[in-house]
Recover the amino acids of this structure.
């Protein structure tokens, strides 16, 4: 029997607010444990939550970017469970009445385009973090509550994905949108963008869904693909051997490449949801929604399409150059200064990104600004530098922060384009190689490359290649 997988994703994204969802504590990552806490996020008796307005704006922006309906009234609820990193014994979330619902996200895979439905986007607070067996006290576990109360949105997809590659494409597209909006930094390693995958199988042609397993907190695109791929095959093997897939929560062991059982899967009633008595229903005015809609930035897919149409660059180039807003802005500034879309693309994708990646930098940390590259490219266009020379100059610009003009002057690097100077070098080379000259004129045309090499060597690589070729042909054939 042949089976197909049914995959739905639940993505938790930390919002880039300066303070937590219901108190004024900082959300900064990496602080000393338990230093960014207060009575509210520690769940002390008698404290009251106050909703962060910026977090609401960010959640609405995300909803609009994926065509969700923003509900005029949403309700916060208490999700009750007991765990060491949840100080109140419950999490403030949304359940029956979320902030937004009924959205969509288009993805592109090798199989073509596909639309993935989005069931809902709701707001909630994060839990703390358990630290197991680290440092000198490896036999103990510790609780860091700095993360408790950090604002999250949970983005729940429809079970519209059938293979792991679709899940990865969906996650990447969603992460790009969140980062473009500036509402989440998308850092999977730090846990600010993390994913749970619900995976089930069913015989091809069957409409009813199979029993799902939930894969928790997967923190890289590669692991998402590996975990889902393994889990699909695991479930097929269970069924083929006459067993039944049970509903449970599983973890992905990236070292062994397998999923392992963690606990039986909770149902909604296990959490005993009920409306949060300390928070009034959240009322969103249409005027606020329109204000946020008008201020949305150009999103990744629209920008990629525009780059292809406006600049005539290949789809691959457009994809790389729009991978972040900052990189796209850098490219557009360089094109504005040079009026050379493809040349600008080549330099950014080649030399700029090569040195940035090699030094662990992003485009925002580049020591070379678009104006400096425009000056360098103008030198190539004017014949002062060859392309190879320009690459050497650019490396020095990157290391020192100097302008192209300063590097050329200090290193004496400049292309020789003066015909008189090049003619003198050519004549000296020909005079030094009479036997090869005779052989060339006798029909050994391939020796032309020998003479080009000798001229460039004599000119220390600084002679204009086009001028060398033109004048050398004249002299050899004369």
């Amino acid at each position: 029997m042949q089976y197909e997988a049914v995959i739905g994703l639940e993505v938790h994204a930390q919002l880039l607010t300066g303070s937590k969802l219901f108190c004024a504590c900082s959300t900064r990552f990496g602080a000393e444990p338990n230093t960014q806490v207060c009575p509210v996020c520690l769940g002390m008796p008698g404290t009251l939550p106050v909703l962060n307005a910026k977090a609401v704006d960010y959640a609405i922006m995300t909803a609009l970017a994926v065509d969700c309906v923003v509900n005029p009234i949403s309700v916060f609820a208490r999700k009750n469970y007991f765990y060491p990193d949840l100080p109140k014994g419950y999490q403030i979330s949304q359940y029956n009445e979320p902030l937004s619902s009924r959205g969509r996200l288009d993805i592109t895979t090798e199989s073509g385009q596909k639309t993935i439905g989005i069931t809902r986007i709701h707001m909630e607070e994060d839990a703390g973090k358990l630290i197991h067996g680290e440092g000198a006290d490896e036999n103990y576990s510790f609780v860091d509550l700095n993360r408790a109360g950090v604002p999250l949105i949970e983005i729940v997809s429809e079970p519209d994905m059938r293979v792991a590659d679709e899940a990865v494409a969906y996650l990447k597209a969603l992460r790009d949108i969140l980062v473009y909006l500036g509402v989440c930094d998308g850092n999977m390693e730090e846990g600010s963008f993390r994913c749970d995958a619900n995976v089930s199988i069913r015989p091809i042609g069957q409409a009813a869904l199979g029993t799902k397993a939930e894969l928790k907190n997967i923190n890289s695109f590669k692991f998402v693909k590996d975990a889902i791929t393994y889990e699909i095959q695991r479930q097929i093997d269970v069924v083929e051997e006459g067993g039944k897939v049970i509903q449970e929560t599983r973890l992905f062991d990236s070292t062994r490449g397998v999923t392992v059982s963690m606990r039986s899967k909770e149902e909604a009633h296990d959490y005993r949801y009920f409306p949060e008595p300390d928070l009034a229903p959240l009322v969103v005015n249409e005027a606020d929604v329109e204000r946020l809609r008008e201020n949305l930035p150009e999103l990744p897919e629209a920008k990629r399409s525009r780059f292809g149409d406006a600049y005539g660059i290949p789809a691959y180039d457009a994809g790389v150059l729009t991978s972040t807003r900052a990189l796209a802005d850098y490219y557009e500034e360089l094109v504005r200064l040079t009026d050379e879309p493809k040349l600008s693309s080549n330099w950014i994708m080649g030399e700029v990104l090569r040195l940035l990646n090699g030094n662990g930098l992003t485009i925002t940390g580049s020591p070379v600004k678009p104006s400096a590259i425009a000056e360098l490219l103008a030198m190539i266009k004017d014949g002062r530098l060859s392309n190879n020379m320009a690459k050497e100059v650019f490396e020095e610009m990157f290391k020192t922060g100097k302008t192209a003009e300063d590097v050329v002057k200090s290193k004496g690097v400049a292309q020789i384009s003066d015909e008189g100077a090049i003619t003198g070098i050519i004549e000296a080379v020909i005079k030094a190689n009479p036997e090869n000259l005779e052989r060339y004129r006798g029909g050994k045309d391939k020796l032309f490359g020998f003479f080009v090499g000798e001229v460039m060597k004599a000119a220390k690589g600084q002679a204009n290649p086009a001028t060398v070729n033109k004048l050398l042909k004249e002299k050899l054939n004369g």
Residues 296-411 form one domain. The chain has a mean pLDDT of 91. The two ends are 79 Å apart (CA to CA). Residues 320 and 349 are 8 Å apart (CA to CA).
